[in-house]
Every structure is written in structure tokens, then in C-alpha cells.
Amino acid sequence: MPLAKFPPKKRPDGLSTIVTTLGLILCAAVFPFWSATVAPPVHLSPVPAPGSTVYGNDISWPQCPRRDGGNGLPGPQDSASFVVLGLTDGGSFRANPCLANQVESVRARHLWAGAYAISTYPTDAELARHGGTGTLTQRLRRVGAAQAAFNLDTLARVGLRPPMIWVDVEPSKRTPWSAGADRNNAVIDGVIAGYRAAGIRAGLYSYDRAWKAITGARKMPGVPTWVPVGLASRSKAAARCAVASFAGSKPRLTQWTDDVYDYNLTCPGVTGRAARGNLLTVGAGTGTYTPPVPGLMGTLFEST
Question: Which of 94, 110, 119, 133 has the most CB atoms lying inside 10 A of its own CB?
Fold first, then answer.
């Protein structure tokens, strides 16, 4: 996860489904992830030493209680320094209904927090609603920008503004990507442009086979990447940092899994002195946003 797994359909009682964000631990929570009741933090998280590798988890709807349609999987480990939280429940224009509770727990543990959101090719209804007029390329770019705006609204509701959002680009059975790479790339370009217009950087999460099928193996060397290595080891994930990613640049994050946890690590160049101007969320309010210093921990994550 963020592999595009979809939550089960709603049960008759109307309960719905779940997804993920990121940070550095000051204290451990011993209660279940989704049930934390916390006071807001009043200080910045500690900053990892320059050059160090930092470990964390990403979470999604499977971490939601079964009563809410999730799988009841465990939340971030006590050893995690960051969490990447999903803003969607497996598709575009579908908010993660458990995000607010997950954010409360992240704040309780004072973790560095990041976010990702799945983007998909629009349905006919989504294209009609968000695409406007003009060429198909123009309309698809507007749909992508609308996906970004939807996710930014979701972040605003929970009081977070991470300096970067990861755009999850993977195959989707529910809303398949088109057979045309140019059309798919127009959606992705619109999503990235939507985030940039809001002053937030965009990164890409994908893997070689999926990226090639969807984008035609497009190279985007200026865009940060997050690369999964699947059912593998920490050492394999660390080694992947040295290899060019699906989009051409070396990864900022890599991920491996054991089918219970998704583990992540930062690649060289990510850790260091955080930008003091990064947004600090306190309770429901927010501070003043200042673009983070490039190449440092604050470039990717918000301090909570």
C-alpha cells in the first residue's frame, strides 16, 4: 500500500473504508492507532542527524478497524520516525474516511508526516464534471487538477499541509487507465500542476512495469520518486536508493513489505536540518507556510 488495493464494499450498516501521512517519534502510543485521543503537540519534532537513514511506515484503509471496512492491520510501529498517510480510499475523488483519526495519532506521537493520494484516469462522468471544454488533452489536465484540489481540501479538513504529496500512479481495476500514454500523462501533469499551484511539491510513487504501461516509460528527472521493492528485505530497499527510478531520478524513499507492514526508508540526501519555516500544525489551526529548504527532511515531511 500505496499499491492500489481497494477497500471492500460497504456493508448494509453503511460503514465505510480507509487510507495514509508521515513524521519523527518523540513518544510511543500504546493504544490502538485509530482510537487515540490526544492533546496537540506544542513543539517541533527532533531532526535526524545529517546523512542518517530514517525509517517509517505508510498506512491505508487496511489499518482501519474491521467495523469500518478495513482489515484491522496494525498502525505505525513504535520504531517509526515517519508515516505517509493516504488521502484517498483507493481511487480519485474518494476521501479516506479514517484520515482524521490517523492524523490525531500521528500528532500524538509527534511524527514527521507526509501524504500520498492515488490518481486514476477519469470516468466519463468525471470528465464531464471536471474537464470543461477544449481538446481532450486540456480536459484531462483539468480533471487531474481537480483531483489535486479534492486532495488539498481533504488535507485542509484535517489541518495538515505537508510540503510534498506523492502521486500514486498504478493500474486500477475500478477505473482503468487509458490505452494512450499521452492521455494518461495529461492527467498526471494536471495533478502535479494542481499541487504546484498551491505551493506544494509533487512526487511520484510507482514501479517500472506499471509506469511503462501507463506513461510509456516517460522520464521526469526533476520529480522526486518513491520506489517499492515488494516482498523483500530492508537491505534490498536500501540498495534501490542507488538505482535510477522508473521516472529517471534516484529515489527519495524506498519501500518494502511483509504483507502486514509497509516499511519505508529515506535515501541519502533526504535527512538533515529541517526548514524551520515548514508548517507546524497545532490542534485544528495551522501556522504560516514557507517553502522548505531543498534536499532536507522538511522537503518531504511536515513536523507534527
Answer: 119
**Cβ distance 185 to 218 under 8 Å?**
yes
Mean pLDDT of the chain: 79
Question: How many CB atoms are located within 10 Å of the residue 296 CB?
Answer: 19
DSSP assignment, residue 83? E
Distance CA 31, CA 5 (A): 26
CB under 8 Å to 143, separation ≥6 — which residues? 122, 126, 127, 130, 131, 187, 190
Q: Comparing C-alpha atoms, which of 1, 19, 299, 20 is closest to residue 162?
A: 299
pTM of the model: 0.80
| 292 assigned to some structural domain | yes
pLDDT digits (tens, 9 = 90+) for 282-291: 223 333 333 4
What is the total count of domains within the chain? 1
Residues linked to residue 86 through DSSP beta bridges, in sequence order: 116
Helices then strands, counting H and E runs in the chain, come out as 7, 11
Domain CATH for 182: 3.20.20.80
The larger pLDDT score, comparing residue 98 to residue 60, is at 98
N-term to C-term CA, the chain: 23
Its domain, for residue 96, covers 33-303
- Flag whether 129 is in a domain: yes
The answer to whether position 8 is within a domain reads no
Dig out the grid coordinates for 10 from the structure: 460497504
The answer to whether residue 158 sits within a structural domain is: yes
How does pLDDT run across 108-139, given as a tens digit for each residue? Answer: 998 899 999 999 999 999 999 999 999 999 99
pLDDT of residue 295: 52
Is the pLDDT assigned to residue 14 strictly greater than 70? no
